[in-house]
Structures are given as C-alpha cells and as structure tokens.
Write a structure and sequence with these properties.
alpha+beta; Factor Xa Inhibitor; 3-stranded antiparallel sheet; 3 helices
C-alpha cells in the first residue's frame, strides 16, 4: 500500500506544535485594515489553536 500524500494547501496554512496541537492564522487581515480598530487587528494577528474536532481532520490531511 503506498503512503498517503499530505495536502499541499493544508501544509501552507497550518503548523503542528510540539505537543501535537494545530496552529493557524486567523482570517480578516488581508484588506480593509483602515476600517478595523487597532484592538481588532492585534487580536486577528495572533495565531489560534484549532479545536479537537478540527485537529483530527487537519492531521488526516497532513498525513500525521
């Protein structure tokens, strides 16, 4: 049986931490930044840890 290939789009968007959690960049930081408050842009700029249910799906796509 051949090995499962990892999803190339998922590789670019998610990072696995040392403890096995999945980190991602939050949406909403690409455009219209003048209309958003500084507090909101700082919050959106921080990485987010995925929930347990989503982690299972992403790990499958990353072939881990």
């Amino acid at each position: 049986m051949p090995k499962q290939k990892s999803h190339s789009g998922t590789k670019k968007r998610f990072k696995v931490t040392g403890s096995g959690k999945i980190k991602k960049q939050q949406a909403g930081m690409r455009h219209n930044l003048e209309g958003k408050s500084s507090v909101r842009t700082r919050r959106l700029n921080a990485d987010k840890v995925l929930s347990a249910a989503d982690t299972k799906i992403i790990k499958n796509l990353l072939a881990k």
